[in-house]
Write a structure and sequence with these properties.
Layout: H1 10-21, E1 25-30, H2 33-43, H3 55-64, E2 67-73, E3 77-83
Length: about 90
């Protein structure tokens, strides 16, 4: 919750999380939303290393990871990625 933006490469961070968890479900969230993270990044790029992934990015990444994006809400940022049945 509210920590993905502190990693320089969100895709790689999600990939490693999936690897460490052995698949299953990954939930990404930020109580203040993606717009807050964009503002935070613009104000402090040395601390906030990336943006919250867009729906389009997560759809693309999830396919590469053998996952499916099953929930996405941008206002209160919430994304749920589930391992697809063929890769679990």
């Amino acid at each position: 919750n509210g920590s993905l933006q502190f990693f320089a490469n969100p895709f790689e961070t999600i990939r490693i999380a999936k690897e460490k968890l052995g698949g299953s479900t990954i939930v990404l969230s930020h109580v203040n939303g993606a717009s807050f993270v964009r503002k935070e990044r613009n104000e402090n790029p040395a601390t906030v290393l990336s943006f919250m992934p867009t729906k389009e990015e997560l759809q693309l990444w999830s396919k590469d990871l053998g996952m499916e994006l099953v929930v996405f809400e941008d206002d209160f940022y919430l994304a749920v990625l589930k391992t697809t049945a063929t890769t679990s």
